[in-house]
Specification:
This protein is of the alpha/beta class and about 325 residues long. It is built from ten helices and eleven strands. It has a six-stranded mixed β-sheet with strand order 7-6-8-9-10-11, sandwiched between helices. It has a five-stranded parallel β-sheet with strand order 2-1-3-4-5, with helices on both faces. The longest helix is centred in the first third of the chain and has 23 residues. The radius of gyration is 22 Å and the shape is elongated. The termini are far apart.
Length: about 325
């Protein structure tokens, strides 16, 4: 067979496979539930990303029901997962603490043939279909590199804020951060605060208390949000913050970047994450061919000078 003829045959086969796939998608409707314990600013960013992506999944049609809360008891979250599973859903996207009760509720949902995709932070020891989000240890190591290089060789400490030690993703960021500092920047120490849940008032109070007790704190790595409150804590105490690294391009962080009040944001493409999560649901229901779980999202270092176009107001 001539080379150009072989290429035409391959192209025809590829087009036929695409037509078969599209035929399988036509008219398929998926109702998914999104359960998140997170600050409102981040939950709304996830909602916006998902709703951006749903039209691009046509001819399949996706609709979502949202269950967002900033503060929740573990038992209530587990009960919510059970209630959604009992009512029925084509898929469950979940951001929740890594606790045995949550893992058990996930397994019960999977037992009803409901695919569960964990978002941003994983839940261990459960049968979830996949984790979608960034490589959190790599993100922590990246933060350590940025802060260490900016601060230089002097001895100092860094305020590290977590929303809660119960979130596996935040714990992994903190582990990566500590490991990289210990290896590359041994003169830099950490003062860790947590359980502010990324909510400004609680996070700000924790930051002010840490700053009052730590006169050598000169930088911040905000793992769990509440960045405006942390920035204002430094300002209220007339303390310089030479480097501030946070996570996620939500509305608060965009404003803080524009105002040059934070140095950099570690960002991952939420739209790509939502697209991957929806495709996992479609594969589970055998509408798309089976495939490997998506790799972790790439960590992007965002400064005031390279904000993605879609985030520019």
């Amino acid at each position: 067979m001539r080379k150009h003829t072989a290429q035409r045959v391959k192209l025809a086969i590829r087009e036929l496979h695409g037509q078969i796939e599209q035929a399988g998608l036509t008219g398929r409707k998926f109702l998914i539930d999104v359960v998140m314990q997170a600050p409102d600013r981040f939950s709304e960013a996830v909602r916006a990303a998902l709703e951006d992506e749903m039209p691009a999944l046509r001819p399949s049609v996706f609709r979502a029901r949202y269950h967002f809360t900033e503060v929740a008891r573990i038992a209530d979250l587990a009960t919510l997962i059970d209630r959604i599973a009992a009512r029925g859903t084509h898929g469950l996207f979940l951001k929740a603490p890594d606790q045995p009760e949550i893992a058990a509720a996930v397994d019960r949902a999977v037992g009803r043939r409901i695919p569960v995709v964990t978002l941003v932070t994983d839940v261990a020891n459960c049968r979830r279909a996949a984790y979608v989000g960034m490589d959190n240890r790599a993100a922590g190591e990246t933060a350590a590199y940025l802060i260490g290089e900016w601060l230089g060789d002097g001895k100092a400490r860094i305020l590290t804020t977590l929303s809660s030690n119960s979130f596996r993703g935040e714990e992994e960021r903190e582990i990566g951060f500590r490991r990289a500092l210990r290896t590359r920047y041994p003169n830099l120490g950490i003062v860790e605060v947590s359980e502010g849940l990324g909510i400004d008032q609680a996070t700000g109070a924790l930051a002010r208390k840490a700053l009052a007790a730590g006169p050598d704190i000169v930088a911040a790595y905000s793992i769990g949000g509440g960045n405006r409150a942390v920035v204002e804590a430094f300002q209220a105490m007339a303390r310089p913050c030479h480097v501030f690294v946070g996570h996620d391009l939500d509305a608060d962080n965009m404003a803080l970047l524009r105002e040059r009040r934070i140095s950099a944001v570690l960002h991952h493409d939420l739209n790509a994450d939502m697209r991957s999560a929806c495709r996992i649901v479609m594969r589970t229901h055998r509408v798309l061919p089976q495939g490997a779980p998506p790799p972790p999202s790439q960590v992007q270092v965002i400064t005031p000078f390279n904000v993605p176009a879609k985030n520019v107001a």
